[in-house]
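It is worth pausing here to work through a concrete case rather than discussing structure prediction in the abstract. The textbook approach is simple: state the sequence, then state the predicted structure, then interpret. We follow exactly that order.
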Amino acid sequence: MKPQVFKGQNSKDAIFKVRTALGDDAVILSNKNVDGKTEIIAIAPGDIDKWAMQASSAPQESKGESKASDSTVMRELKEMRSMIESQLAGVAVSQHKADPGRLAVAKAMLNAGFSALLARTISGYTKPGTPPEQALEWLRTGLSKHLKTLDREMIDEGGVFALVGPTGVGKTTTTAKIAARCAVKHGPRSFALLTTDTYRLAAEEQLRGFGKILGTTVHTISSVTDLKDTLDELKGKKLILIDTVGMSQKDKRVSEQVAMLTQAGAVKRVLVLNCATSGTVLDDVASVYTDSEHGPLYGAILTKADEAIHIGSALDVLIRRKLPLLYVTTGQRVPEDMERTDAKRLIEAAFAQSTNNPFAVSDFEMHLGGE
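Step two, the predicted structure:
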């Protein structure tokens, strides 16, 4: 199928038509204003390859040249989509110029670190004519409802949990914190510790040190067979925690590790995210783990909240990815620097952090002043 043209009264209307016809993953090729209306040219994601082949093919091209051209077209299309969607986010925000309530919502979210995508969506749902203060209260309440938290602890539910995520997010220390909580509440023999991190000697030794303090042995896992046999030996334990090897979300071994965990049986995967990381990276990491063909994640743990300039970006990812939040960690102490917290408190904290921010978006940047 070739690219299609969609026209709307404004960008929001046009995008709605695109998504209705082609889905949320539609690729936007161009966006322009025609006679006071928004015109968007888009194509279904499944048709990109065919269209790219047609656009790039020519009789005189060799096979190698054609492949190179296809790759270039695909890269340019992706870059174009990212650029245009970012521009549309600004267009949508500027459309709130005549509505102070919607503007207040969009501005507050952007300054708290929430994405333009979520800010655009939420501000669009704000009732027109709502006073700014009332709109902001509605915003906090609404976000609190959409941020999922579990009403039970891992240590009470029991089972096998694997902490997954990139290197340096604090998986090993967080594993120790959860184990310590379990030891205090259910006794030192109620849990077991496993590690798949055979790449970093320091990480394994760190976990073994925690295990010694907590009075338990750490089992090293190197294969699916190892994991299955070890879990069978430990089936009498209330809680089994697996500290996995950290790796970039772009590493092909991520899928191999997830496959090993799921092939072993009822292993619940918990994604560990560093609050001090940029929103773009956080979303990229979450997309890799939530898009896994091996089933959904059990939930997420946010680490290093004490180091983050703002936690809005991390909360944004949890809300959009619909990931339940299990714990928030705020330091290295085991087990003190980890807590369960309610959604309302976290949302309030996110907006409180946005004050005195030199990178805050002003009315001028939102196209409301300075003209």
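Step three, interpretation. The radius of gyration is 24 Å. Residues 63-94 form the longest helix (32 residues).
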